[in-house]
Amino acid sequence: MRIPSESEQAKRSGAQTCPVSGIGAEFDPFRDPYLSDPYSFWARARREEPVFYSPEIDYWVVTRYRDVKAIFADPKTFSASIVQNPIAPLSPKVVAMLREGGFGAVPAMSNADPPVHTRIRKFTGQPFTPRRVAHLEADVRRIVTRYLDSIVPRGRADLVRDMVYELPVLVLFIFLGMPEEDVPRIKSWARNRLMLTWGNLPEEEQLKEAAGLLEYWRYSKQHVEKLLDNPPDNFVGDLIRGRGGDDRVLSIDEIATVVYGLLIAGHETTTSLSATAIVRLLEHREAWEAICADPSLIPNAIEEVLRFDTSVITWRRRATREVEIGGVKIPPDAKLLLALGSANHDESEFPDSRRFDIRRANAKDHVAFGFGIHYCFGAPLARIELTVILQELSRRIPGIRLVANQKFEYSPNISFRGPKRVLVEWHVSRETS
Ligand code: HEM
Questions:
Q1: Which atom of ligand 1 is nearest to 72's Cα?
Q2: CATH at 378
Q3: Domain containing 285: what range?
Q4: Dmax over Cα atoms in the chain, in whole Å?
Q5: How far is the CA of 20 from the centre of ligand 1 (A)?
Q6: How far is the CA of 192 from the centre of ligand 1 (A)?
Q7: Atom 12 (ligand 1): residue with closest C-alpha?
Q8: Is the CB of 235 under 6 A from ligand 1?
Q9: Residue 156 lies in a domain
């Protein structure tokens, strides 16, 4: 997150110029029914008003595939500067608390524009060398096996709590060289950050979340500072060596911000996608049985999960000038909410888009990882994690099924989506190895 200035918090981007349409007034992103099913609302928006203004969040919402992709492809007209800003204004007390607490995240990756983004991404762009990928895949398999050894004899589990909640952060800790015992703290701080940046909280809850956020920032910064004199052979070590002691090349705050960013980008997303993948595949039993019979279907099944129900359903940009999107005139400085989940269901790109089809030929054309210069840098890691989880789960518990009549709950925030619990069961004696 970045602390927005007072004028940024006060500025509204569209209300003065736009008559609020029916659909914009109905957009209610922090509550049900949208939280449980954003797709029905988006289908209507794509049909009736594909680009609309939302007075509740003061954003222009863009729902069609071609518009979203065109925005990602034009970083000059569409700045990424706001992607880490709180979606709902922070209370002045919280802003003061963060400032006084030394919160120092700077624009570094997802919220930096060229040339800063180009300079930093040059160092962070290729962390997944074939050697590191092979190591990480082995680590992921070892951790998944450890979880499965513990849950398989039980015959019943909440796969979020018992497997995918901690798994991605454990892998990320290996990647960043952090100690495993810190995982629970990081998971809880990440939740603080998620709700403060992408949720819509009253002041007293903001203050609580901000305290965790500050600790989270200090932890990231200290981790980098500890390694400065003796950079290890890992991603953080690469960044420290790359800067060669020169802040103009890469500052310590920039490295700390990258680490701080990864500590959420690299696990909340993958935890949620893993949980969703399991739900979607088990709901579509024929798809689950197909991957059990033929694991070579898993990579495309993962692309279809990303298309069908991604874990980052919206992302953001700011228009740097007056511009037309889908025939709608957008004022300069307007904030844009790109509905990635909607773009991935756009019929003009994905025919019969509400059908979950693990053999869909163009599933991988989704925009779940963004597009262009900010394309998700962790996509290879997310794909490895998902592949190993599905390989091991389908091999060891092919008879697994969802506990009947459970309702999936989603956290009330605008961008990150995944079920909080996934209850599953299986017969222990016959089906498990
Ligand atoms: C299923 C899992 C994931 C999803 C759905 C996802 C999604 C996204 C999206 C939508 C963006 C914005 C792209 C854009 O602006 O064009 C992004 C950027 C990014 N992601 Fe991911 N992500 C996932 C996993 C990861 C992982 C595992 C990591 C790190 C290990 C990661 C690190 C990043 C970073 C650093 C950026 C910013 C890149 C830049 O600005 O140059 N993500 N991701």
A1: 16
A2: 1.10.630.10
A3: 6-431
A4: 66
A5: 32
A6: 19
A7: 370
A8: no
A9: yes
pLDDT tens per residue across span 368-403:
999 999 999 889 999 999 999 999 999 999 999 999
Instruction: Please report the DSSP string for 88-129 in residue order.
Output: SPPPHHHHHHHHHTT----S-STT--TTHHHHHHHHHS----
Residues 151-174 pLDDT 10s: 999 999 999 999 999 999 899 888
Structural contact between residues 101 and 354, judged by C-beta atoms closer than 8 angstroms: no
Contact 410, 418 (CB under 8 A): yes
**Could you tell me which residues come within 8 angstroms of residue 279 by beta carbon, excluding any fewer than 6 positions away?**
402, 408, 419, 422
Considering its fold, how many domains does the chain have in total? 1
Extract the tokens encoding 353: 């888009």
Does residue 167 form part of some domain? yes
Q: What is the pTM of this model?
A: 0.93
**Residue 390 belongs to some domain of the structure:** yes
Question: Which of 113, 278, 369 for mutating ligand 1's site (highest number of atoms within 8 Å of CB)?
Answer: 369
220 with 252: CB under 8 angstroms?
Answer: no
Is the CB of 380 within 6 Å of ligand 1?
no
In a domain, 170, yes or no: yes
